[in-house]
Structure formats: C-alpha cells, structure tokens
Hints:
Layout: H1 2-31, E1 46-50, E2 55-58, H2 74-88, E3 96-100, H3 106-119, E4 124-128, H4 137-144, E5 150-155, H5 167-176, E6 185-191, H6 199-208, H7 212-224, E7 228-232, H8 237-250, H9 257-271, H10 276-289
Parallel strand pairs: 1-4, 3-6, 3-7, 4-5, 5-6
Antiparallel strand pairs: 1-2
Amino acid sequence: xxxxxxxxxxxxxxxxxxxxxxxxxxxxxxxxxxxxxxxxxxxxxxxxxxxxxxxxxxxxxxxxxxxxxxxxxxxxxxxxxxxxxxxxxxxxxxxxxxxxxxxxxxxxxxxxxxxxxxxxxxxxxxxxxxxxxxxxxxxxxxxxxxxxxxxxxxxxxxxxxxxxxxxxxxxxxxxxxxxxxxxxxxxxxxxxxxxxxxxxxxxxxxxxxxxxxxxxxxxxxxxxxxxxxxxxxxxxxxxxxxxxxxxxxxxxxxxxxxxxxxxxxxxxxxxxxxxxxxxxxxxxxxxxxxxxxxx
Length: 295
C-alpha cells in the first residue's frame, strides 16, 4: 500500500510540473511573439495586411468592378489611371486621396485601375491596410521597401476621430520621416472627408494651442501629403441611368429600355439618392427577379 501511495504522489507531482511548464511556455510565447512568415508575393496580385501577426494574406480573387462599368467619373478615372501607370513603370507619381460622396465608386476605382494596369502587362501589387492598423504602417513599409515589386497601399474609408493620434504615423510614413516613402510604394486612400480630420478636432486644436494657426496647419497638412485630390460628387440622373444601362448590357439583362429606366428611377427615389452603389443594388435586385446571377 505504501508503494501505491508513493506512485500516486509521484503522478500528481508530474501532472503539477507539466501544468507549470505549460503555463510558463504560454507566458514566454506572449512575451516573445513568433517571427512573422516571409511573404509569398507570388501567391497573388492583392493582399491584406494583418498588423497583429505582421503578415500579408493573399487575396486570390478581388471583389471589384471592371473599369469600363464605372460611369460618371471619367475625369477622376483618367487621372488615377495615368498616375498609376507612371508609378508601375518606375516614373514619378503621387499619393492619391479619393474623397467625396458615398457610393460614387472611390474604392471601386482604385481596385479597377489596379486590375487595368496589370492587364496591360505590369506587375503591380495591391495591399489593403485597415484604418485601425494605420499605426503599423512603418512595420509594413519596412517589409515592402527594397523589394523588386511595386505596391499600391490602399486604405478604404480613411478618417480620424477626436483624440486619435495615429494620423501622425501616417504623416511620417507618407513623406515626413527620415526614410520617407519607399520608392516602390504609393499610397491611395478613400474618405468622405477632404481633410480626413473632423472640424471639431481642428477647432479644438485652434482654441488650446499657443499658436492656433500652426496647430491648424499641423492637422490640415495630413491631406497635403496626398499630391492628388480627386473629388467625387453626387451623380446626375443621366449619369445614374448610364450606370444602369452599362450594368444591364454587361450582364445581359434583357429589359425594355423604358421599363428599365422607370424601375431604376423608382428604385433611386425609394433610396433617396443616386449613386454608383444604388445603381449596383438595383441591378442585383433586377437580376434576382430575372433569375440570373451576376458572375
């Protein structure tokens, strides 16, 4: 019986020791994060940056609209296309801020231009960084700098709230740091705000600063890091109907022109707005009623 007791005590001691070792191992893993894997940039033309793990997730199929289907934004399309083509072949190009009305194709244009430039034989990578990960821009740039590929860093719906200081990381990463922006990287962002920062944030800086003018300049200068400001405004009825006609023709939705026009206008009235997004939502509804998929 004494031997059995000693054996039981030994088993309990071993289990306790294993638990302590497991706990110690977990603490070490938290304190020393694993080395992020080397990015496989041949895996895809588009990636999503994950700041927590410091890695680039390949996106085999990007959710985008073909460039010819984007109507009513011809001038912005041509400017961004030319800027991107220059960058893709190694010429000087500007960071771009696409700002303005919701649903007018800002993010769709970035993705469509990327596809269009690559279709012309260029090898350009699109890397999406989420708004909440802007603080990690320096780490991402350190991974991309010096590589043979060229990259569009894309942040959708970029803006900053009151007391948010991560905009300073963006300023430094774009132009103001010692290293500056790597020559193989360009930054495209979309926003509903032209100056990215809320007016009350700027006014608060004005009222509390020793030199109010300099404080406002500090805030507004973030947008100045973007050499291209492309404004998107609410579309006219003609532009809206042109979007509808383009989608219907592209996807082979056979509807009488008068019926298509009437239903599209009724749809926009119920939504209280006209935009590329509203046009696309109508086309999805129409295709569903016709028993077709949009592939």
